[in-house]
Amino acid sequence: MPDRGARAPGLVEPNEIGPRTWLVELTGVTKAFGPTLASADIDFAVAASDVVGLVGGNGAGKSTLMRILCGMIAPTLGRVSFDGAEVSFTNYDAGAAQRRGIRMVHQELSLCATLTVAENFFIEAPQHGSARPGWRNFYRRAARAALDAVFPGNRIDADQRIDRLSIGERQMVEIARATATPGVRLIVLDEPTSALDLERSRQLRDYVRERARSGLAFIFISHKLHEIMDVASRVLVLRNGRVAWQGAASGASAGRLVELMGGEATAIHHRIEREASVRDEVVRVGAAFVDGGAPVSFRRGEIIGLAGLEGQGQKALLRAIYQRERDSAGVVTRAAPASFVSGDRQKEGVFPLWSVLANVSIGRVGPRPALGLVSDRKEREAARPAAERIRLDLARFDSRIGELSGGNQQKALVSRAVAAETLIVLLDDPTRGVDIATKQDFYRLCSELAREGRTLIWHTTEDAELIACDRVLVFANGKIVRELSGPALTEEAVVAASFSHLAATGPERGERRGGERLRLLDRLVDAAPLLGLALVLAVMIAANPSVASVFGIDLLLMPALSLVLVTEAQMFVVGGAEIDLGVGAFAGLVSVLSATLLYDRPALGALAIAAVVVAYAMIGAVIQSRKIPAIVVTLGASFIWLGIGYSIQPTPGGASPDWLSALTGWSIPHTPTSIVLIGAVAAVGALLDWAPLGVALRGFGANPAAMIASGWPALRYSVIRYLIAGLFSAAAGLSLTAINSSSDINSGNSYTLLSVAAVVMGGCALTGGIVAPVGAALGAVTLALIGALLGALGVSSDFNAAAQGAVLIGLLGMRHLADKSGAE
Amino acid sequence: MNPLRKFLELAHSQRWIWSALAVLIFWGALSAVTERFSVASLSGILLSASYLTIVGVGQMFVVTTGRGNIDLSIPSVVTLSAYVALLTIGGRDANLATGVLVALCLGFLVGAVNAALVIGLRIPAIIATLATGYVLATATLLSNRSIHGFAVSPSLNSVAAGRLLGAPIMLLVCIALIALTEFILRRTVYGRTLSAVGQNRVAARLAGIPVERVVAAAFVISGVLASLMGLVLGAYVGGAFLEMGQPYLLQSVAAVVIGGTLIFGGSASAIGVFFASVLLILMVTLMQIMQLPPGSQDMVQGVVVILVLALAGREAVRTSGAPKVGAAQ
User: Fold this and answer.
1) CB-based contact, A74 to chain B, within 8 Å
2) What are the strands, taking DSSP E only, across B72-178?
3) B317 at A interface, C-beta within 8 A
4) Looking at this predicted complex, what is its ipTM?
5) Residue A584 predicted with pLDDT over 80
6) In which region does residue A291 sit, left (phi positive, over 0), alpha (psi from -120 to 50) or beta (all else)?
């Protein structure tokens, strides 16, 4: 047992009297992953008003410890107690941690990108959500209040979708959301300032201090040690899964923390003075990226830093150089091959199925001709020296890359660029979230590479790193506004230049303008299905004026009702980032059941339909619990539905129950029944989507991991999603029977793919999280009318399918072009 | 390490072993309980499986490009190609070269159009290939109206149904295709880049891989294989009919996933497609022998696809790279 007495002086503030009650206390916590101990016998406690700075290199065990604290993983050994009372780890999960007031702001953003700011506040605290008119207002106000409290003057719109905010703004929303959680007592901030500029970072630290005074506790994880020293009251240093030191922040210094973490006390930035470069120019950046317009040249052997506040165009320039993107105003030219190292390893670097070796060698293999041969032996030989230069352990070459720590993964990505032997190396924040030892290996390598005559273009968010560069280009509003080199190149000068050019037009304002323009374009695209439908109707009325009568409209639109219903079913599945290929076959099956069993023996028929709807909902359970792609499962299921229907009714026939026919057979004067019914279906879809349930379903489509982390049960909502789809699809089946007065198992087949088309036409994204009930219904009606339109124009029905395909391609093409112009 | 652990480890990296094992067990059980499975029936099953494998390999290339890409135009290409080939060849060997060329062009064109829609217009593959499938369906209807009687070229028929040294020629063609595909996947730059694109498209682009070309090639390969298969299938069945490609929609996807290719992309196995095809054909044959109604055949195939995915699902997710908790720091 560790000696409890030994840590007391560090834990208790000198001015405090008597023992404190810990808000949460971890004792002897050990977590083993196979033979490695991610956490080893850690004692750690937090009291109200504490601000604990948690530091440590990669693999030191910070994330593991925080995940244990937040109930996301259970430790191998150890105890946890709240307010002095012990809680068993077997009953302790993420939900339990949340109920006890622990919130974590993750390094990976945990917002639902296609939901609005206010809706994201609902996801975190759903207890105030109920399907009443105006239920969103509560969350709008909560979002505004929380954002203004933490980040004064932020100008973030609570009704804006998260994916239309800048990265920094998203991080602000995330932090604000955690602070606003009712009953929150401890907030874990994991690298909260990684996407914030200096001013926002300062606001956050001010806020943390202020809230801590009123009793809220924080754990502040950061690689930026000056922030830790600024904000923390206590510091916990982890090293190799063990507590290296903990004590009052006043007893530490940034240098001492680096030592404790296992790095060297003095940062080594080898800036070797090189003779003024008269060497070959390798990159020329034209007017589009330069304030003032004179082109900037990068030469061989240079390290060029790209600096400025977050999102001012540094990344855009890197991408433009990599892709040699031509711009209308100015051209980026590159005279030699380039390789790219991104700090966003998971998204932009790693190939998770592969070994370390394959991950390194792809940089050499990728650009070669497609039919060239690859030899593992040769690649191994070529990769070895590259890996040695950054001290990547050669013994790990055959491990899967995911088994390496973040720092070692980054070393593999750097080795990839070195092994590719390109003259130009583009670095996009390559040391993000990397431990100090790895950083120092990296800095050393950079200066070596430059000495060999390679050109390094280096975007970093750590201003201290810029001192290692020969020249630094400072960005503001997408352009280079300042060049610093020689003695003028200091951290202070970089910071000053970053801010001096941002007087009138801040980055957030630029983002917002872009956001509003996007919205306008989106509205135009959203209107496309309506315009398309109007056009189709206009042509048909021109060809045959009697179409414009109530009878004519019903004749045309009534058959569209079934497709509209199937489309609404498909829409809720697509909203979950899945596609249901069984939805049409299922409508066919329900149609068969209703025209046979339901007609002959109503009770048994109703039971059978209920049973297949339940079976349909169970598909959601299979997909969710086994994590398998919905497309293939539902494709398989479609054969089951068809098989059942075919066995019940091998040839078309049956009859529609009278009450069912009456449902579509009524009429009120001067109103087309079909339009009323289709409108009602769209309204039901819209109502479901508007309600808290619909927001949650969209949330799962946008970011399932975040939903689960917020305590939402994924399995239940997957079942609900398919239950809703099943109900809509079953209604489609009933409508088929009612309209045709008979059934045919194949009658729904063509709807499956048409419904996907209609959903996309209506404005939903196949990537999930966006649902448009009215647009989808309009899309369905348009597609259903194509056959009639061709008939009216005297075209053979052979061309039906081709016309549907062409309309689909045309609309999606237009949508893509609109999105593209909106994104630029 | 005991042999079982060794086997499991091998099967973990070489997922096609499971489908091969399933074929062996299924076959063994059938030979034991019925008299009607013999070496002769095996050759018939292998012949049908060869047809399925050819389109399955095309589907495998598309699936491996990731992002849930699936080629839904395969059935339409198969059908249209059979019609077009019959129309151009008209039963005469002299026209065979033209017919093959036309079929090739058809497959290439459809693949290229699919690729253009997916890459150029960013239309999701499942929608784009569905849309081209619709257009092809109309072309098929028009061909169906203009065709008068079916006459099959004799040499094409001998390829489609003939034997060489006792083995169906199509089986040999299929084995050659598998060998070539495995070589491309494991030993060429294209194979590596295809896997990279399927795993992580952004990273692939930043690693200097011409992502668009890699994806486009996969769609073209799928289109060409489907059209060549349609050409031979038309000769085999001695004609063409509107729905002749339809069974290959579910079966090509089923052959890909049962064979151990990851549905999420990035990892493919052509051998797996072959064994899975044999397995699927065995199942269909068995059901025909048992004289089950066609409806129950559909049901059984659907259930098998879902079961296989449900059993393999977890593993596939793990290997598709959710970082392990311990290593992620």
Assistant:
1) no
2) 163-164, 167-168
3) yes
4) 0.88
5) yes
6) beta
